[in-house]
Structures are given as structure tokens and as C-alpha cells.
Amino acid sequence: MSPECGTLSLITLLCVSGRLSESVSVSCSPQTVCDLQGSEVKLTCSYPKTIKTVFWFSFKQKAKWRNEEHPEDLTLDSDYTGRVSTESTNSNSTLTIRELRERDSGEYHLMVITEQGENYSSPGVTVTAADLQLKMTQSGQTVNLTCSTSCSLTSKPDYYYWYKNSVYINKFTPYSMSKPLVLSSRTDAGSYSCSTSDKSTLKSSAVDVFKEDSEMNVSYTDRQIDAVEGLSVDFLCTYSHPKAERVNKAFWFYFRPEVESEELSGEEQFAGRVEFNGDKERNCTLRLRDVRERDSGEYRFQFSTQSGETFTGSPGVTLKVTGAEGPEQSSVLTLIAVGVSVFLALTLLTAALWMCKRKSNSSKGHRSSGESGQCDSAAVHNNPPAMAMTSGPTSRVSDDQDDIHYSSIQFKSSHSQEKPPLDTAKHLDTIKEDVQYAAVNFTAAPQ
Q1: Rounded to an integer, what distance in angstroms lies between the CA atom of residue 428 and that of residue 390?
Q2: Order of strands, edge to edge, in the sheet holding 159-164?
């Protein structure tokens, strides 16, 4: 046999050490698989019973292998965690990939290891993750919807199934013929998608059919308006209708449960105060002048077309009217009251602090005078020769001391240091000259 690797009809052998070992046939079927994204695919390969170990791998993941020459088990790859599983017997192995993703597209191989430790790789099985594609063409008032897949599905369905606004509408077209779904009536307006099953969650992207031309709708800028009595209020509003239709009547009404709607301008309560600023195209703005408390409630806009269709914007706009002293004015008065209270409180606090400070300063003055008197008194007692006794009123101080009240007396000595004893008479004369009386108040005792 040639030293080159041989090729059998159903197998591809991986050469080991540049030579062909004993033939090991590994076959896989099918060798190409196309299925929708999000679906589940199964790949199966068979081999002789002499195989010891098998595992699945993909060359597109080799950048994550520890050694690019040594494939690694796909079930250990983080990209497939929780989505792949294998089931192997002594003659075949099946790889299951769930929730198929676009990046899963590529070739997959089964690695078989013989009891002699020789490795062989199966032929590659190509997997393609397909998606459903929806194409819309329009000619006049006729719309054709065609459903297809990006590759021919391995398990071919019989039909494409059609959904309108995500609900199956009991319409289907043959898968093999790619026959379109034809829509031509305004009643067909909606959002369409297709699938390969009437119960599948795997659907194509949706397309809107006749939606812009057929919708009847009313949109309010504000759902609730608060106003003070006497002001004017604008109810901002827009509406839409089929382009082929003409609006023959449009009006606002005051909503009352179980009461037929009546045009607002025709009610006695709103007479002369209603102004419709809209038109019969898109604008439906209303102005209500001189609002009153009894005007509080819900207002709705309604219009009808020439074909007899009527549409009401529900729920409408809720108006809440308060008296002249409404919430805003009450808030202002509250702020003023709070401001005055804070000002008075600060004024009282400032006055109290000022009085306390004044009282504190006064107390400090009295204490200072007392301490000065005590100090001078102590000086007199410590230096008896420094005091002089005078005749006249001074003598009366001694005689009537029980009846005399002193306001304050201060003595000032010109000598800060003790000196040697001097002649008594001379010393007394010196004291007379140095002692100063600040103030002496006498109060005679009652007789």
C-alpha cells in the first residue's frame, strides 16, 4: 500500500506519524445540516466496535486549545456550555446542539481513539444556522408576502405558517413552491411574520402591512390637567385615519358613564366657552375658556369617517379645576407664612442673645469692682501703717458705723513694695497724701 493516506468511499483517515495504520472506518450521516437558529440539531457518526474512546471537536475552536495540534472535547468549550451533549455506544456517537446560534455554523468532527492509542478523525459534518426571511412587495392595493430560509432546511417542513400581530391566522403556503401570501383588503392591516410551524416560537422578523394608511388613533399630549378657576385650558391632541377615508364629523365631549356622547359646544354648561382649534386631518386641539370647578372631569375626542366608522380616544383627558385659592396660591401663602414665622423667630432669638450678653457684661463689671475692693482692702490690712484716720466726718464713721452704708470705697497706694519702718507722724502725713477716696455714700439710720 502506498505510504500516502488512503481514501475510502465513506471515510477519511488521519495519518499518524506519516504512515497509514490499520484502516478504521468512521462514517457520518448526513454530512451537511441546515436548521433554523434557536432549533436543536443532532450529528451522528458510526465506527467499529474496537474503538476505546470518542469525543467531538471543531477546528474553528482550535484557538482555545492548549495545543492546536491536539483537538479538545467540545463539551468542555465555554461557548457550548449547557448547550451540547453527547451520547455514545460501542458503535456510534451522537452530538446534540441546542439553541443553535449563528456562530455555531462550521464543521464538526468525531475523534476516535483505538485500544492501541491511535487517533482517527471522522469526515467533517457541516452545520449551517439558518434564519427565516420575509419579503414584501406591493403593487397598487395588493401586497405579496414571501417567506424563505437562508439555506435549504435538512428537515423540510410542508408549509410556511402565517402570523398576524404574533397570532396564527390559519393561513399557510407550500414550503417547496415559495408561494406568496396575498393581501389586498384594508381589513388585512397589521404586523405579519412567518414560521415553519403553526405552534413555533421561531418566527421571522415582522413587517407592517397597510398599517400607516389604515390605523385610526387619537393621541393626547397630557392625560391630566390641573387648572385654577377662571383660566383658559388647551387640550393638545392629534389623530390619524385611513388616507382613503374622509372625516365627516369630529368633536369633543364630556364623558359620563352610560350616557351617549354629546358635542361639548352643544351643552348648556359649556356654551360660549368652547373653541375647537383642530381640523379634519390630524389636529384635534380644544380650548376651554373661563374654566369652573364644575368643569372637572374627563374629556374625550371622537371622529367618524364617510364609511361610517367611528373612533373615540379612550381614556381621555382628566381636568381638575380648583377655586381661586387653588393649590398654587395656597402654596404661595404657605411659603409667606413660613417666611414670616422664620423672621420673627430669628428676631426674638437675636434679642434674647443680646440681652443675655448685656447681662453677662454687667455681672462681669460688678465682679471686677468687688475684686478690686477686696484687693485694696487686703493691702490695707497687710500694711496697717499705710492707712490714715481723719477727724470730723471720719470720726463719725467710727461712731456710727452701724448706720452707715458704703456704696464703694477704693484705696490706692503709691507703694508697691514694702519699705523699712519710718517715723510714725511723718508716715501718717505721707499716707494722707497718697490715699484717694473714690466715692462714699452715707445713709442715716432711722431714729
Answers
A1: 10
A2: 167-174, 159-164, 190-195, 207-209
Helix (H, G, I), strand (E, B) or coil at 359: helix
Query: What separation in angstroms does the CA of 358 have from each of 81, 344, 349, 352?
Result: 84, 21, 14, 10
What is the Cβ-side half-sphere exposure of residue 349, based on CA atoms within 13 angstroms? 6
Amino acid at 410: Q
Q: What are phi and psi of 328, to 5 degrees?
A: -70, -45
- The residue whose grid cell reads 492509542 is 117
- What's the sign of the alpha-carbon dihedral 121, 124, 125, 130? positive
Contacts 24+ apart (CB under 8 A), 190-194: 190/164, 190/165, 191/164, 191/165, 191/166, 192/134, 192/145, 192/162, 192/163, 192/164, 193/134, 193/162, 193/163, 193/166, 194/132, 194/134, 194/145, 194/147, 194/160, 194/161, 194/162, 194/163
Three cell numbers at 421?
A: 519702718
Over residues 168-209, the pLDDT tens digits come to: 999 999 988 878 999 988 778 888 999 998 877 788 888 888
- Lowest-confidence segment of 160-174, 216-230, 372-386 by average pLDDT: 372-386
Q: Is the entire prediction scored with pTM above 0.70?
A: no
**How far is it, in rounded angstroms, from Cα 341 to Cα 198?**
74
Q: Is residue 180 reached through a cis peptide bond, with omega within 30 degrees of 0 on the bond before it?
A: no
Largest Cα span, the chain: 161
Residue 121's SS3 state is strand
> What is the per-residue DSSP string for 34-61?
EEETTS-EEEEEE--TTEEEEEEE-GGG
DSSP-assigned letters across all residues of 392-408: THHHHHHHTGGG---S-
Q: What gap in Å lies between CA 197 and CA 160, rounded to an integer?
A: 7
Residue tagged 422664620 (cell numbers): 342
